[in-house]
Amino acid sequence: MVARPLDPADRGIRPAAGVRPPRDAVRYRLDVVAHNVADAVEHAGGWLFDRVGAGWEVTVLIPGLPTADVRPLRILGAEVLDLDSVIAARGQGRRPDAVAISSVVCEQDSRTHRGLLNALHDGGVEVVVWGRAWTSPPQHQVDPVVHRLSIAAQAFKAQALTAAQLPQALNTPTEVFRSGLPSFPPLGFDLVPVG
Fold first, then answer.
1. Is residue 64 a contact partner of residue 82, using CB atoms and an 8 Å limit?
2. How far apart are CA 117 and CA 137, in angstroms?
3. How many whole angstroms separate alpha carbon 143 and alpha carbon 134?
4. Which residues pair with 130 in a beta bridge?
5. How many Cα atoms occupy the beta-carbon half-sphere of 69 within 13 Å?
6. pTM summary value
7. Element (H or E) spanning 180, and its range?
8. Minimal CA–CA distance to 40: which of 5, 80, 94, 13?
9. CA diameter of the chain
């Protein structure tokens, strides 16, 4: 038997050779479609940070990404992809547990509007919309909900707002959305009805 030097980072757990759990099987997925970086940070930055902190894989999809400075979203822990590239690849096999969409994008892009309606119809996906420009179809119940930001989310959102050159006055302790709740909400449900 050969003695190995101790490694303080070694927890003594070794994966079986060639076996790795599927990434999607271990984490919930939230896909966010925003008009631009500032839109996502201002309206959903604290919620995105709190979802990342809860173990969610959060990806923000933005049109025209190659020219955008994505540092504010990286501060919040989100991955960032180009919306048009994802749509061109037919979603890259994406199957999120939740989708969040800016109403501005819904009004300007018929592809994302169709995707939103499909997600609402699916019933197994949490659907969240921010902004006032979008009205939900009558056959889908979409109600106002609020997320109360953790203290950490408020701190990280403040840094993201600064990086996005947005005023700190936008860093409020709550963020309000409209949500079509799935039949079976995910564990750790963090959006509560307004009222």
1. yes
2. 8
3. 12
4. 102
5. 10
6. 0.79
7. strand 174-180
8. 80
9. 71
Query: In the structure encoding, which two tokens stand for residue 28, read together?
Result: 């919930």
**What is the C-alpha separation between 130 and 175, in angstroms, rounded?**
9
The residue assigned the tokens 């409020």 is 172
86-140 pLDDT per residue, tens: 888 876 677 888 889 998 888 888 777 777 777 777 767 888 889 876 666 656 6
Distance of CA 144 to the CA centre of its chain: 18
C-alpha 53/C-alpha 152 separation (Å) is: 9
Give the pair of three-digit tokens for residue 179: 């949500």
In the block, tokens 């009558």 appear at: 138
Q: What angle do CA 174, 57, 186 make, to 5 degrees?
A: 65
Q: Using CA atoms, how far apart are residues 177 and 146, in angstroms rounded to an integer?
A: 6
